[in-house]
Amino acid sequence: MTARLTVAVLAVCGLWSPYPARAQAGDDAATPTLGALLREVRMLRLAIERQGAIAGRAQLLVGKLALQDQRVARSQAERQRLESEAATATASRARTQTVLTERRMSIDRAKDADEAAVIQSDVRRMEAQWKQEGASLAALERRRAEADQAWEAERARYEELSARFDQLERDLAPSRP
């Protein structure tokens, strides 16, 4: 009986022994494929992580660009407003200068001393007004120069952000299918 049992065990072992050998051979053939698949999965994971990081940076940059665009628009509007005010003040001062010149000439044509005194008083008032307009115009010109500088700075910052966005877009171009 032990001999039969031994034979049966050997027969069963003989039947099953080729399968593990074939399975191991199959595993050896599948190992390079599995390794290649794992490398591909890792590369895809890295690409997805990179795309996620870049997408976040792009969104942040777009937000900054939109805010900077608003700043440029506000500074440009302020610049234009001050330019308009300065033009109005310049025209007003020129009118005052013209009237002042006419009033000075009318002093010589005055018929009597009382009329000349009234005109002289009017000339002094207009001279004070002309000086005040000059001071206001100078202040407006200073504010306009500051607004021009602010506008240039905001525009330069916008250009910088736009260049960064363009660079980010170029960085993304090779990874697109």
Notes on the structure:
With 177 residues, the chain is mainly α. It has a single domain (36-175), classed as Helix Hairpins, CATH 1.10.287. The protein is built from 3 helices and no strands. It has helices spanning 2-16, 18-108, 113-172. α2 packs antiparallel against α3. The protein is rod-shaped. The protein starts with a helix and ends in a 5-residue tail after the last helix.
Count of individual helical segments: 3
Name the shape in a single word. rod-shaped
User: Based on the structure given, which CATH architecture is correct?
Assistant: Orthogonal Bundle
- What is the averaged pLDDT score? 83
Question: Main β-sheet: number of strands, strand sense, barrel status?
Answer: none
C-alpha Rg (nearest Å): 45 Å
The total number of structural domains is 1
Topology as H/E string?
HHH
Q: What percent of the residues sit in helical stretches (DSSP H or I)?
A: over 70%
**How many β-strands, per DSSP?**
0
Topology:
Elements: H1 2-16, H2 18-108, H3 113-172
